[in-house]
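Table S2 (text version). Query chain:
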Amino acid sequence: MRPNILFISCDQQRWDCLGFNGIYPVQTPNIDRLANEGISFDNSYTPLPTCCPARQALLCGKRPERYGALWNYDQGTPVGSVSADAFSWANSLNECGYRTGYVGKWHVSPTLTPLDFGYEDYVDETTLHAYQTNNNPSLSFKSGFFGEVSPYPYEDSPTHRNAAHVIELIDKYEEQPWHIKMDFAEPHLPCRPSEPFASMYDEVPKWRSFDDTLDGKPHIQKQMRYNWGTADMTWEQLHETARLYYGYITQIDDAIGRVIKHLDRKGILDNTVIIYTADHGDLCGERRMIDKHYIMYDEVVKVPLVIRYPALIKQGVKNRAFVTNMLDLVPTILNLAGAPVPENLDGISLMPYLTGEQKDSIRKYALVTYNGQQFGLYTQRMIRNEKYKYVWNPTDIDELYDMECDPGELVNLAQREEYAELLKTLRIDLLRELDAVEDCTVNSDWLRDQLAENKKFI
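Corresponding structure-token output:
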């Protein structure tokens, strides 16, 4: 019997803010259960840490630059986007007899919806938000991007309504195998959790890299602090945003728990593949910075990835292979559904990891790209292995971090002479990785030479 496939995705969810990772004290009992009863990937990376490009990669299984999806389409600067005739794994599942539904955030195309890519039912983000405003016309939000306690009751919150619509679709599809995308727009700032979640965390520990001076790093990082007005903020000032971020995550976890309980009551929990991940992470005050742009720190580019399916996966597996969540999940889902896998996808199926046949990383590196966003264009390319992370910044100094000795990425080693030979190797390896995916930066001879031969005057 083919499994149901519940794909849960969050927007701007830090990998280190989940209970089972044991780093920060965020309560996520339901996501923890998925990890403890399935497999969690400790080195899962987004292909590109911006909403639209990452989501286009997931929809079609190819790196977003292939579609010209360099940044979010709603920031004023023209940019490419996936077309309606592109491959979509939801279409493939439909052709294999799956019912398909999409609930929540889309942010893939300004003109197309999930209905254009194989989903038969779609409950959009606007519908989810309308419950709280329509049912409580006298209430409104007061604060800006740094967040606030939601004045609306939890029962009318988008997270609660997301779960309610997912449960409705599960019941609607019960005669056939189904795939449902449960896509949360949260915990993306502004963080506005409802009670009781908004008051769950009076005190939260300071981010481990909050006091990063950013000395010896690209200038744009300090500039970002000034762009957001956070350069002189103390932890006491940014603590409120972090506290609300924790509460939002626990609120999402509660909604996920409602769906898990419903699957259990119907007796179909163990025949449902449950995938939990995110499009990218969030600084959320880390290093006195907000949002996710112009940096390649793990709090932004590393993402959670958990899969539960007891018919195939042993309980409590922690895997350290380097995976690209939004690309590798596409062939994996097609394999799980018994659907054909196109040869031209950029992802690698995770099936060998799920079955336990493969434990070591198939990939030598994680590869992440970035092209700029609302404050301007800015090219970055990053590779990371177990020991080192290298970030190529064509218009500024490069970055090199020892991820074993300096997991907080506080000390940039790229300017130290003793690392010159290592950097030479990493630059050549990055060039190979970029060539393999036909990355747009290496189409330029000037940029190829800069990367391969370190032709910089900074």
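Notes on Table S2: The chain has two domains: 4-364, 367-453. The radius of gyration is 21 Å.
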